[in-house]
Design brief:
heterodimer, A: alpha/beta, Rossmann fold, 7-stranded parallel β-sheet, 9 helices, 46% helix, globular, B: alpha+beta, 8-stranded antiparallel β-sheet, 5-stranded antiparallel β-sheet, 15 helices, 21 strands, 23% strand, binds flavin-adenine dinucleotide, binds NADP nicotinamide-adenine-dinucleotide phosphate
């Protein structure tokens, strides 16, 4: 169960090998979390994530196959996981791809891959999750969105628009779940130094997976609906949204 | 007394839209309802069954056990929702609202033995029986609790040092369990009786209980009040003087730090005899025994935010301390003011705003007074707004394996939720309590870790064995039980039985009345 200070005892991660997700697992494991299911693409990264969760002190860790674009399978996967584990206190949606903007904006398949992974596939999985959480009468659905979705940029609009879609969907779902005991928290990190951004120049206010994890735990503590990491980005992006188009267009990646 | 049998629970009870009730021709009506405890933290939705009669409660337990009711997430009883945390919640499962079971079935005004429905509130017992010369044997800091809730938490009062806990005054109870309804008394089946006392509803639904009330001549107490300058001072006074009083409690000003840490007001008293009262009351014995609770004010649903902050709380505490007489002896106080000063303000829990609050209450042995000092000191340092802490001295422990009281000091204080690191801080305080051989109180808890809990209640295995005797399949479940590993959900629980569609919505149902 979730306690009065928002801490979960069980966690399902969609995108279980994500670096940010691994940091979140370590944070909640240091508090109350005893059961973690990592749903992700099979491979050494997922195996490593399982090991890390174990060494963080989680009693029960399991990995299951999850391919975000395999939309037909989502209902069954979510059903079987909730049945087997008797429910989850928290579900973290962490899968995502950055894509290659320069190539994708000329490649129908590349564009569709980013959007199907980041938005369509996850939204499909989230409705299945939401129904189970609603039935169990409580739960926290935490979605890793991005500031890139606050306003799509010329240099990054395929990814940005996919996050904008996911973000808007999550907020709507949160409203649909009001009064059911289930709540949705949208997390909007800025530039996070790690695998996804490897080789890129850090943007201003760059942060780390560990800092994102701390903000997630803090958000759970105060039952937040939207969390920016770092927090100052909330104000930065409040301004960014109003920068004139001609100027915005030139924002670097 | 004609209190209508409406549930008087002022916590969130909005009816959840889009959850159709089963249109079954037989069986109880269930309504999905969002529930919290008094602290208004960690809400969860459950299918609430109104136990309009003990038979309905017993049938609900049997139906859930047989898989005819609910979606495999068990059943728990709920009283007036005055436990602070998640004890009377059952996410996704069935909750039996016991407040309807409030009839008086037998009374012996010679001996003071009364048999009442478990949903009867202590308030209604007082309204009925104080004018008849009988008072409840144990009362908590609010009268708005049910007899069932009082047994399930095995509550204590300001008289624990001489009278023990509530269940010590229960001579018999009726318990609806998954393996049938039975009468349980402390002589016939002490194991089950004492697993139920303090068992937080997880051994069954109490539907009826017989209590031994205590005789009183009036509804007044003669109260001695003294100010104590610090913790040593108040503890010294309590150790040397408590035995001379029926009731004793100290209110500590948590804002006082340094040399003044623990400064407090000690109030102790005894039931007043008619002859003790001023002439005017003495002349009118009916008035001298009158018991008419009044609500002076109700906190609005959305109070001004930031009402409770270190500044306002500091000012309040200062004022309150200065207002208390330095020393006053034998002053008559009405029961309502002495026992339940907060009951005059309905729904005061809303003062803490939407994130809610929690209460931290622990007990440590007589020789562990230093733990009390360190806890107050650490909480004072982070300046978490808390009005007052309550310090009491417990007498010998009670027989229940999960009963809270043990001889020593118990401190209780309210803390707003949302402060960064509050969870961590309380975990560290728990470390101290465990190291001192103490424990925290489940009726107030909403966050203790399993490891701490298990270390605090070494007789847990014994309790589990007794529970398994009446509930072998673990049908009785609550959010608190899940959180602490007292029960668990098997595979396959809470599959959605319906795709919620607007057509099936019960959104037209108005949220329940919030009467108090
Ligand atoms: C302002 C305030 C002051 C308080 N002061 C004190 C105090 O001084 N001393 C003290 O000991 N406690 C104190 N309490 C706590 C309170 O006495 C207990 O939490 C009590 O259990 C609340 O009773 P309830 O009817 O509201 O039960 P609920 O809060 O609804 O339920 C509490 C527990 O009892 C179980 N339960 C309820 N009814 C039944 C039933 N019919 N059969 C089986 N189980 C049942 C529930 O499952 C749950 O586990 C205080 C609470 C408040 C809000
Ligand atoms: N890093 C940043 O700067 C940043 C900033 C803001 C928001 N975010 C968001 O935060 C989330 C986590 O990112 P991260 O930084 O932890 O990066 P990451 O380590 O690359 O994590 C992304 C995860 O998504 C998984 N994934 C990708 N495509 C998938 C698919 N089709 N099906 C299933 N899983 C798939 C990846 O699996 P594999 O391990 O198999 O590749 C990977 O584990 C993402 O949603 C990301 O968009 C990141």
């Amino acid at each position: 169960m979730i306690d009065a200070v928002g801490q979960p005892q069980s966690l399902l991660v969609l995108g279980g090998a994500s670096e940010i997700a691994q940091a979140v697992v370590a944070s909640v494991a240091g508090r109350r979390c005893r059961t973690v299911v990592l749903a992700g693409r099979e491979g050494p990264r997922l195996t490593e994530a399982v090991e890390r969760a174990r060494s963080a002190g989680v009693d029960q860790v399991e990995a299951v196959r999850f391919e975000a674009t395999d939309i037909e399978g989502h209902g069954e996967l979510v059903r079987s996981l909730f049945d087997r584990f008797g429910g989850f206190d928290m579900v973290l949606v962490a899968a995502g791809v950055l894509g290659d903007q320069q190539a994708d904006e000329h490649d129908p398949v590349g564009t569709a891959r980013v959007i199907t992974t980041n938005f369509t596939g996850l939204a499909a999985a989230m409705v299945a999750v939401a129904d189970r959480l609603r039935a169990q009468g409580y739960g926290r659905l935490v979605v890793l969105s991005s500031v890139a979705g606050d306003r799509a940029r010329r240099a990054n609009f395929v990814y940005g628009s996919s996050k904008a879609g996911l973000d808007a969907f999550s907020q709507g779902l949160g409203d649909a779940l009001a009064g059911t005991g289930v709540s949705v928290m949208v997390v909007r990190p800025g530039f996070v130094k790690g695998r996804m951004t490897e080789g890129m120049d850090p943007a201003p206010f760059a942060t780390t997976p560990e800092a994102v994890a701390e903000s997630v735990v803090r958000g759970l503590e105060r039952d937040a609906q939207v969390v920016y990491v770092p927090g100052v980005l909330r104000w930065v992006f409040a301004v960014m949204r109003h920068v004139p188009r001609t100027l915005w267009r030139r924002m670097p990646a | 007394m004609t209190t209508p049998a409406t549930p008087a629970t002022p916590e969130q009870r909005a009816t959840v839209p889009a959850a159709p009730s089963s249109p079954a021709p037989s069986g109880p009506v269930v309504v999905r309802t969002l529930l919290t405890g008094w602290g208004r933290t960690a809400p969860s939705a459950a299918d609430v069954v109104e136990a309009v009669h003990p038979d309905v409660a017993a049938a609900a337990v049997a139906d859930v056990a047989a898989g005819r009711l609910g979606s495999g997430r068990g059943i728990i009883a709920r009283g007036m929702g005055r436990s602070y945390g998640d004890a009377a919640q059952n996410a996704g499962g069935v909750v039996v609202d016991g407040t309807w079971m409030d009839s008086v079935t037998a009374v012996d005004l010679e001996t003071g033995h009364v048999t009442v429905g478990a949903g009867t509130s202590l308030e209604s017992l007082m309204e009925r029986f104080v004018p008849q010369g009988w008072f409840v044997p144990v009362t908590p800091g609010t009268r708005q609790v049910t007899v069932g809730g009082a047994i399930a938490a095995d509550i204590h009062g300001k008289n624990h040092h001489r009278d023990g806990s509530f269940a010590c005054h229960v001579t018999s109870l009726t318990l609806a369990t998954p393996s049938g309804t039975r009468r349980v008394d402390p002589e016939g089946d002490p194991e089950l009786f004492w697993a139920t006392a303090g068992g937080m509803g997880l051994t069954g639904v109490v539907t009826e209980a017989t209590l031994a009330m205590i005789p009183v001549e009036t509804s007044y107490l003669l109260v001695d009040t003294e100010r104590a300058r610090d913790l040593d001072d108040v503890m010294e006074r309590m150790v040397t003087g408590d035995d001379g009083y029926h009731y004793s409690v100290a209110w500590i000003d948590c804002q006082a730090t340094g040399a003044r840490l623990g400064r407090s007001v000690l109030t102790r008293g005894d039931h007043a005899r008619l002859a003790d009262l001023p002439t005017k009351l003495r002349a009118d014995p009916r008035r001298a025994r009158a018991f008419v609770p009044r609500t002076l004010a109700t906190v609005p649903v959305t109070p001004p935010s930031g009402l409770l902050n270190p500044l306002t709380v500091g000012a309040f505490n200062e004022l309150w301390f200065r207002k208390a007489p330095r020393r006053e002896v034998g002053r008559p106080h009405h029961m309502t003011g002495f026992f339940h000063p907060l009951d005059g303000v309905a729904a005061w829990n809303r003062l803490y705003g939407s994130r809610g609050f929690l209460q931290y209450q622990f007990v440590v042995g007589d020789d562990q007074g230093e733990v009390v000092r360190r806890v107050i000191g650490r909480l004072a340092k982070v300046r978490l707004a808390s009005f007052l802490a309550v310090l009491k001295r417990f007498g010998p422990g009670d027989p229940g394996p999960l009963s809270f009281p043990m001889p020593g000091w118990t401190l209780a204080l309210d803390l707003p939720v949302g402060h960064p690191g509050l969870g961590r801080l309380l975990d560290e305080l728990d470390d101290e309590v465990v190291a001192a051989g103490g424990r925290i109180y489940l009726a107030k808890d909403s966050r203790v870790s399993r490891d701490h809990f298990e270390a605090m209640y070494p007789r847990l295995a014994e309790w589990k064995a007794t529970r398994a005797r009446v509930d072998p399949d673990g049908v009785l479940r609550s959010d608190l039980g899940r959180r602490l590993g007292l029960c668990e959900d098997g595979p396959g629980s809470a599959a959605p039985t319906h795709a919620p569609t607007p057509a099936a919505s019960r959104a037209a149902d108005p949220p329940r009345e919030q009467t108090r």
